[in-house]
Amino acid sequence: MKLYVYDHCPFCTRARMIFGLKDIPLDLQFFLENDVDGPTKLVGKKTTPILEKADGSHMAESMDVVHYLDEQHGEKIVSPLAEGNPFKAWWDAAAMTVFKLTIPRLAEADLPEFATAEAREAFKTRQTKNFGSFEALINNSPELIKEVESQLATLDTVLADHDTVNEGDFLIYPLLRMLSIVKGVKYPSNVRNYMDRMEQATGVALYFEQIR
Question: What's the pTM?
């Protein structure tokens, strides 16, 4: 099966994770950031991820892809989130801080969706509209890092007893993967161990080699 993605996209990371967790063969395809026609031909709009099923039909929406593949390949492993799950609460509290730290850095990273100057510029233009000046965000990194480290301390406690896969992992790991590109962030032991464990289990690499 083919999965069309952007490497930087946390929703795409969610869909990629289930392939690794269930050892499903994957033909990974990357759209350029400024390619509108490619995804539109498949699902009618510019979006990722997009799964091309064995029958040639296509599916978007990351968690729909996760649950479809979980149900189709062996025993189900992804349990639903219980009400009040702390992973969801952590994502709600931390996501915007992580995005502000990571988007300007991902914009400079060596990623397939930025293979042309035009594609990289399209990403910068779009995300500047969403998050404001990249220069201002980079300059504010010390405060943002302090904030995210406080949030990581909270997550460290949550992860102390976490040993089974649930929907929360598809919230947390993609966000931590994005964060791994940021230089100077200190990770508590449970968080770092979780990141390393999930990287190995999913096959979706962290960004430490491109840290900036």
Answer: 0.95
